[in-house]
Records
---
Amino acid sequence: MRLSPSFNRSLWVFHVNSGSCNGCDIEIVATLCPRYDPERFGIKLVGSPRHADVLLVTGPVTRQMRDRVKRVYEQMAAPKVVMCVGACGQSGGVFYESYNLDGPIDQVIPVDVYVPGCAPRPEAIIYGVVQAIAKLERLEKEVKS
Amino acid sequence: MIRLPSVPMVLRQLFKKPATNFFPAKNLPPSITGFLEAVSEGKASINPPVPTPDKYRGKIVYDRDSCIGCKICIRVCPANAIEFIPDTKRVRIWVTQCIFCAQCNDVCPKGSLHMSSDFLLATEDRFNENLIVE
């Protein structure tokens, strides 16, 4: 896996709601507002997973969304990063042991960065992106050496 | 005479600072790893995030010594984030499961649980030591 310089500089994000309560989605929209302005880092939402570098998943994976989340993940071109925003995606949160859940997100697709919080503050999400870029740089260094 | 109320506004906006909060840096540094190392060495500094409001509910803080192991927090937790350890008669809090509702803080008879204003918790490992409060 070789990362192109453009991948390094600006991450395009595709957002999937896999059964979230919409709280995290609202915080993601707040993150993209001029108050925090992640577009100065080149981060922006795109409309298709085929254009995206980062998959932003919110919510626990419901049984209906399991195949859709998998399909979106497979449509993305490698190299790709998966960020899980919110408590539900990491452990189930308030929906733990619910009858219609197919487990937290890491039982469906591999997750790279977790952002805890219910819902996380916009800065927490930006900090998660920083962690994701740091991980990419580390992987790139491992590939080169 | 034509009144131009927008002219003073435009002039004022020209010299105003942008409303954007430049967290963690104004622009993307050439290397994030290098930037984080420089921050830990004290050469660079992270722009602070927007200040949290009073009584902000961030990561939970547990005072192990004053806890009496009454399990009321476990009963009241809506997300089942608190686990009882019978050997030590103390609790373990999983921050990834926590929904930051602070009901356990209100119900604790000894006041052993508090919410800090710490919210930058993103990690690559959800079983990180930082995300388990004991």
Note: Chain B touches chain A at residues 18-24, 26-28, 31-33, 36, 49-50, 52, 78-80, 94-101, 119-126, 131 (CB under 8 Å).
---
Amino acid sequence: MLKSILKLGAAAAFAAALLSSGAAQAKLRVAMITSESGLGDRSFNDMMVEGMKRAEKDFDAEYVVVQPRAVSEFQSAIARAAAQGFDIIVGSSFDMIKPMQEVAKAFPDQKFGLVDVGPDPLGPNIVSTVTKDWEGSFLVGWIAAKTTKTGKIGFVGGKDIPIIHRFFVGYYYGAKMANPATEVFESYSGTFTDPAAGKEYTLALINQGSDINFAVAGATSAGVIDAAKETKTFAIGVDSNQNYMAPGNVLTSMVKRVDNQAYDMVKSVSDGTFKGGEVKYYGLAEDGVAAAMDDNNKGLIADAVLADVDTLKAKILSGEIVVPNYFDLTPGQKEMGTPPMATPPSVANAK
Amino acid sequence: MSTEALDAAPSFPLAGLVKPLVQPLVAVAIAVLVGGLLVLALGENPIEVYSILVHGSLVGWPNFLVTLQMMSPLLFTGLAVAISFRAGLWNIGAEGQMIMGALAAGIVGYAVDLPTALHIPLALIAAFAGGLAWALLPALLRVWLNLNELVVCLMLNPIALLLSGYVSTHLLKAPGPTNKLPDIADTAALPTFSLYSQVNAGFVIGLVLCLVFAVVNGGTKKGFEWKIMGLNPRFAYYGGIRVPLQAVLVMMLSGGIAGLGGAEQVLGEYRAFYDNFSPGYGFDGIAVAMLANFHPVGVVLAAFLFGALNGGSAVLQMMTGLSKYLVQVLQFIIVLILAAQFSWAFLGSRRKAPPAHAAPAAPKEE
Amino acid sequence: MSETPLDVVSISGVVKRFGDFTAIHDASLTVRRGEVHAIVGENGAGKSTLMNILYGLLPRDAGTIELFGRPVTFSGPAEAIAAGVGMVHQHFKLAPSFTVADNIILGSEPLAGYGRIDRARAERDTAAISRRFGLDLDPRAVVGALPVGLRQRVEILKTLYREAQILILDEPTAVLTPQETRELFATMRTLAESGHSIVFITHKLREVLAVSNRISVMRQGRIVATLDNEGVTAQEIAGLMVGRSVLLRVKKAKAEARDEVLLKVDGLEARGERGEAAVDGLSFAVRSGEIVGLAGVQGNGQDELVECIAGLRRPVAGSVEICGTKAVADPRRNRAAGLAYVPADRGGVGLSLASGIWENLTVGHIEEFGRGPFLAIKAARARAAELIRRFDVRGATLDKPAGSLSGGNQQKVQIARELTRDARLVIAEQPSQGVDIGAIESIHRTLVEMRDAGRAVFVVSADLDEIFSLSDRILVIYRGRIVADLVASETDPETVGRYMGGLEEAPPAAAASVSEAADHVH
């Protein structure tokens, strides 16, 4: 009861504001809600804005960016955007799931989109995406195995937990596919927030002969990259393009192309294909993941290796290659993926 | 002549009410002016921008409630800073104290099973104790070893952040991708009122605290002693005020209040302790306290101003291409002006009375 | 030089305002070559302000200043010094860790090659200049180790080194023993005879009469008279200063000391700020119904002694009893035991200058106005208003910060607060420091009333006039020890002065008898 009164008040208030601002064009209006780190994070928020910029051009849309300062401000930001009536409200981050669902229930006609979250449908008027990070990990594992001089590569996970195992399995599968003789070291620093620990673990791997190490460890990754810089080896970044963090020593970054995911959401509203409740998967074939290439890692990867990436994409699209998802594996499973390949010892030996 | 002057001065002259408002209003006015020029430089119409800001923070229940949400944590941190600064204790550790209070509330909120009537009070007490504990250390170091509480508080802020980070990302982390503790039980939740805003019963607690301390400051023996202590601790001590004891008491209250601010966040807004949940409410509290002239009622007004700026910010971002930084710039300008005035006054007072400060034991010629 | 006119300084129509307060009204004054010209007046009369204008520290709002017949406007002391004006401030501006010679040349160092300071020449020059004016000083002595009187000489030499023709001395005797004062006066005469002009700011009339050629009296920013020092009496000058004639000695009946000891200090030892033995095992007692004065040159342990009694400093050894209760290092408990304390450090200890006057009057009386946890603010303010009237605190309103009052009125606030406490022991530290004559009189009368009401009064003062005016018994402190215990009516300032200067020390055996004497007084 109270809520509906409040909603009414809000609608009236915003209607008034809307009229006075004279923004009654036919343009597609998009609101992007950033996560609390806001713009300038050189990560998801900045990347999503890139997607918005492209969508603005391609679909005659206009977008605004709302930057809440804290997770506690997500709901009010989404609700007020909903009250103002955008064509779609796009957000990211797991922490936005609950606030967006709350608001979506109160505004059943408003379209919402949330990028890079889990596989569960979020509601009848929310589309969401899952990034097939295991396919991205597969790709960088493949590149690493093709590039290593020692035949040994490493993996530094933030924590020994399933969501991180998913990266490792993809990485392992890609490396073995590129060269079955490649040795892949698996390690977990136990923290997502300690660069010093990341550096220690990485130096240990380098001592074992690894010359390329994939960092999937949040802020700990900075230590992994730092170790690469110090020892003149390579690190591989994750999530966003981290090549800039040590130009010449970051081989590439396994980026989640949230820009493409957000772009597609605007597109679906523009062309009328928006389907509430849909969960779309973004893998290698959908350009949802990629190995970041820019000036910072120019020339580090052989052209021949890069040329093969398109072949891999095609094979994944055709189903010739199916990169195993850790969540589909059972403990002790001996083989995985298509074509089948021996599972890493951590899975094979698990009870 | 003196007699007339005495009689002519009523106990609460009108000038006494207006004068303390002048300085903060000037600061705000300058900030608005500079902000307006900035907006102009960015190619927008300042009048339109400010009217959106006012509209987006005050007009309509949703906007107004968001403003109240935004000001809620500042009521606590602002009050915490205000009462300590007023007593001459430079507690700039409200951020850390709030985090520790939030952590305590978050743990009690999920780990204890109690009916609402007990659960909320227990979680609030835990939060108060958490903040208090974090303020006790600088207070005791100050009293025992004469260590500057400002420095100790400053150092304790990141320690609180890291410690709570360790608890919420390792020790007691809830399953899932977010670094947080498990959600608090419904029995510990402070009720919210609206879809649009997480403003909750904690706001009322903050408001009541400010009013209570307005009375404490203005009408009690303790409040009187703290004020004297703040302006000249040696005089207060000489005059029979138990300065060390009161200093510890004020720091404990200050820390406890900041800790309650953490409870407002966790029990009311987040419903769980989130790692790194605060965008700097403890530091904003310093600005609020300064704008408030360290007066609890002023804290309510200053928190409302900052809350309105931040609340209106989201609407401004939706209605114009301006980013959240405009509002932050406005706040920074206010803080800058206040800080300038403050240090000017501070240095001025030192310059005027060098013997009093420079040579505590022997002020005479020599 | 031969054409130097008689009037080396000629100030006419100078006005100085601070906001809407006019500190100097249309002041005119001449200083002749070779004279000692005293400027006397109460505190706040404008003496220092006028001289600061002459020295270039303050700009003037109107009027002209002529130096050697030429109009001048100094924008800073550097220009004044260059023009031949030197000033010795009440607070010395010396670098304590430097030698005498270093201090004298500081700022106008003689240079050898390559920008190096020519130390040999500095020492030679210093020695020469001190010989020339009969100011005996070792150029290599470290200033921090010198007694106050010698440090003052360094300041004077510093101005002479810069070839000052006109010397302004701001309250130069405040820190000196009578012997040192006499030497200073001799120096002043020597300088005057050698053609220098001395402007001598003071409020001690005896000194004015002793040394000056002419006397200008200031009152409330005006120069009310300039007199030749011939046949003028202290009473006349005092009358001009305050606008009415005053008693220079408070009238009091003979003390009726009772046997009840209200302050007992026994074998007290305390360390000073630098860890030195500032109070070195001293004992004495003050009884109900007597005023005991503690005489001594500043810095001989008075501050530390009083702080120990007040509970602001923790003694190393010995004990203090206040009204039969053992004192502790907690002012709250000592006050509860019956102590009222008027500290010398008004701005640092005795008042909160930034707080309102009513608040300053209420501290120490908080419990009287306590209503449970609350404070009866109305009652406290009403009482403060009454005290302001009763003690005639001028320029006071309840909410005005105490710091806005003049020194004398600040002192009245302290005294009003402390002496209205129900306390049987009163300690008054420099009660008339920075207080004008009118106020001194009333402060002294109040202290005598306290005594007559059966309280014990302990007065610490650097001013011998004050000690003699008030005390029934005089203790002299020198280097942390009581070196003399004298009956005021049976001694004289010269004797006390000798004890103060350490020139006459009670023989070691007498130390015990001194403390015994404390038990057998009268």
Note: The domain at 20-347 of chain B is CATH 1.10.3470 (ABC transporter involved in vitamin B12 uptake, BtuC).
